[in-house]
Amino acid sequence: MRFKRMKRAGIFAMALVLVLLTACNNSNNAASESMQPASSPESSASQSASSEASSPEASYDPLGKFDPPIEVSVVRSTNVLKFDEGESYEKNAWLDFYESEFGIKVNLLWVSDQFDQKMNTTMVSGKLPDIMPLGGNQFKRLAETDQLEDLRDALEKYGSEDLKKVFEGGGQIGLDSVTKDGKILALPWLGGYAGSAPLLWIRTDWLKKLNLPEPQTMDDVLKIADAFVNQDPDGNNQKDTYGLVVNKDLYTDLFGVDGFFNSYHAYPKIWVKNDAGEIVYGSVQPEMKTALAKLQELYKNGTLDKEFVVKDADKVGQMVNAGKLGITYSVDWLPLYLQAGKNQNPDMEWKPYPLLSIDSAPVQPKAGYPINAYYAVRKGFEHPEALVKMMNASLVLWSKKYPDRDLARKLEFNNGVEKWSYRLVHNQIPTQNIDAYKNVNKAIETNDESVLNPNSGEPDVYKRMKEYLAGDLKSWGYYMDFGPEGSQSILAEYDKNSAFKITEFIGVPTATMVNQGDTLAKLELTAFTKIIMGEASVDSFDDFVANWKKLGGDDMTKEVQEAMKK
User: Fold this and answer.
1) Residues 6 or more apart whose Cβ sits within 8 Å of residue 398
2) Statement to judge: residues 377 and 343 lie in one domain
3) 340 within some domain
4) Three-state DSSP class for 472?
5) Chain centroid, CA 351 distance in Å
6) For 444-484, what is each residue's pLDDT tens digit?
7) How many independent structural domains does the chain possess?
8) Which of 63, 164, 298, 307 has the lowest CB atom count within 10 Å?
9) In whole angstroms, how far apart are CA 76 and each of 134, 270, 349, 381, 421?
10) pTM
11) What DSSP assignment string belongs to 302-335?
12) In terms of domains, do 272 and 384 share one?
């Protein structure tokens, strides 16, 4: 992971998954019987760590306060968009909170917008902070040189019910990736796999204007895209609209090509099983060639924006909000990004659809399993449970206890102060947005708010949905994400049917990934861009595959296959 200032697309992805549900979600689902129940914030603050340890029969409090207080040194990246007046990286509500609620006084050693480079220098110096966020290769180096503390005992004793739930089910895979010789050497900050899956988004007001039916097949999608280019859906008597849109980086949450490829049963950038049951890299499989050929055709006939190669996600987003584009493959939170366009043009309507297949075989939407960071503790630090408690805190909505501090966020999505990002340690329940969709819609159907999880962001989503239903278009984005026909409804159905194509490799980078990963990624992006633009033939895909294998792809594949056998 790169710990540098997030670009807008990354911020919005994090914002919906972490901010919209406040990144502090307690799930309504019961935890396993083996878990220790978490104490409430009100009761836990009065219990001290020293009193817990004084008796072998004592209950370890996941949210208890250190008495006497402890000091913890940390480092962080400059990933905060905006601070409230008087707050900074060195002094803010979350740092004060850690000290007052947990007895953890934070000593911030440094902050950098070049986190990887700064952390690498710190690692070489041998003077590690007590608690640190790490990228995959950094974690691997420190783990292999025995510089990280075993967190197993701290997690078992102090992990809250909700934190342990994070690492249940699919989350166990993330925990397995940091376990070596029975030791848990870091706590991974997990992303939700469903939130990375692309959906098909279409401007339905344009469909109605052109009297076109909703798509049932991928062929229908291509016909609609052609109509959006050639039949003047915006009614200005100019040929200035586009059917399909992608951005120059190809693989992004917004305006990417992943969903298009998935419709052709191609799965770039993740590891999949081939017909022989072997784990292989999706971008070099034959299905990719077929999908690239179709994109080349769409580019040639003008269905695909011919200037995509110079437009990043922000520039494409500006075109979408200006009403020039009709189809995109993007993730579930697209409507929040498009809220500005909706405010300017209330008639603009977008609707999500499941991915549609080019043939009779069902489509599986690609889903990565992102590990946003590895939180580790330097070996020898006396209180590794401090990390566990800070992570427990990320799963609790503290605004009820500390309304004056506003520890979660403000509701302004674009320019507001997002105080969740002040936190030093994060985590989330991987299915939290799907859980919220179910609870919020049930509350609206029954007019019963008691079904909402009060310790999560669900009440906020419920409020926004009710505002939209009452006529407030400024809450349209929330409704199109969490409403009964919104994007979460599709993701929930995929999840129910285990339909996601989840990457087969989850864990720290292999040696070849570290050494050759950037080179291979650049090779892929360059080759595919040239094919789409017609600067290279479709058959050049075969040359790309051969070069990819020769430049490290074969070695990387062997490493992945060996890693997954363990």
Assistant:
1) 24, 41, 97, 101, 405, 407, 408
2) no
3) yes
4) coil
5) 21
6) 999 999 999 876 778 889 999 999 999 999 999 999 999 99
7) 2
8) 307
9) 10, 29, 40, 18, 11
10) 0.79
11) TSB-TTGGG--HHHHHHHHHTT-EEEEEE-TTHH
12) no
